[in-house]
Amino acid sequence: MSEEIIGRLVADKVSLGQEALSDLYEQGCFGRPKGKGLELSLVEAAYLLDRTRIRVRSGERDLDFRSFFQAASSLEKGFEFRYVVYKDLRERGYYVQPGRPDFRVYPRGGHPGKSPAEFYVLVISERMPLALKEIIEPARLSAQMRKKLMLAIVDEESDITFYEAREKVMSGLMTEVEGNGMATLLEDRVVLWDPEASRRLHECGFFGKPIGERLQLSLVESAYLLSRGMIKLVDRTGESMDLEGFAARAKLIESDFDQKFSVYKDLRDRNMVVKTGFKFGTHFRVYKQVKGPGKVPHSEYLVHTISEDHVFFPPVLSRAVRLAHSVRKLMIFAYADDGVRYLEIKRLKP
Question: CB under 8 Å to 238, separation ≥6 — which residues?
């Protein structure tokens, strides 16, 4: 540097003179020009102060890194986590600028003014509950701006795990299947008695599980087939049941039946195969296509149904995504929002 660069802490920014434009803004893409000088965010100033690229004063007093960090932490909620992520990304060779929701990250080899940002970054503490809408809104903004949304979760040891979150369009390759048979609601599942109808539904649509020549159906499978007129349903007394009556019974067995059924129906209507995800700790495992019971591939997705006011806890989210990754599937969260919408979250290695 040709001369010492001194900044002043003013509110929640650090203001520097004209000499900073060449050394910091033009060469390193730090800060934003303001007037004839340069304005840094608190995380940018902390990063540069730690590297002795600048000095920072508050009033007539010089602030060392410790004093500045403590002051910044009191001025900006979540400063500590944002600084950890900013520092990590900078040291990985990325240009990083403050923006919505927390940072904009440019691809390697690119920088502001030369190339568009690749990621918008949302910084999260592992202890911070995160409402679904706090992910959905920046995910939609990112998609509209043709960016990716990066979730940077900082744990208690300041290690960072990166995820990508995006809205997902789900679709499959299954074709229509016909069915018509009498079924009975037993204690918590349904049995389809007709052998031919059972064979056709299982072999062509991968519905249910064969028990001898009969087909055992789950509650959501039964509701779907009943809604499509593909089975007729009675209870153990022989009384006929319509969809409304069956759903009322099913809710007594599964409190979240309505929520699960709306997702199951939407996925089936999108030509996908949907089976229980119990062994993976989720509601469903989902296939794009199953060509027959003897040719069942690995499912592509794990789908968990959540409410529109759902709140994620990062450790739980991390377990779900890691499990899905370990079994070569994508983790999808389904929620109601003018129909059923899908959010994909996957590990990211920047």
Answer: none
- Residues with catalytic roles: 287, 298, 329
For the stretch 134-178, pLDDT in tens is 999 999 999 999 999 999 999 999 999 999 999 999 999 999 998
- Please say if the pLDDT value at position 13 is more than 60: yes
SS3 276: strand
Which ranges in 121-215 belong to alpha helices (H)? 132-144, 195-205
Q: Give 325's strand partners.
A: none
Look-up of token digits 């590990």 = 347
Q: Quote the CA–CA distance of 326 and 202 in Å, as a whole number.
A: 28
Task: Look at strands 130-131 and 119-125 and give their pairing.
Answer: unpaired
Terminal C-alpha separation, the chain: 31
Report residue 338's pLDDT band, with 50, 70 and 90 as the boundaries.
confident
Structural domains of the chain sorted by starting position, each given as residue range(s) with its CATH number in brackets? 1-75 (3.40.1170.20)
pLDDT at 350: 82
CA distance 126 to 138: 19
Q: Give which of 230, 229, 194 is closest to 215, Cα–Cα.
A: 194
What span, in angstroms and rounded, lies between the C-alpha atoms of 40 and 53? 13
Which residue has 């109808």 as its token pair? 197
Give the pLDDT mean for 93-102: 93
Residues 273, 337: Cα–Cα separation, whole Å: 22
CA–CA dist 158, 130 (Å, integer): 18
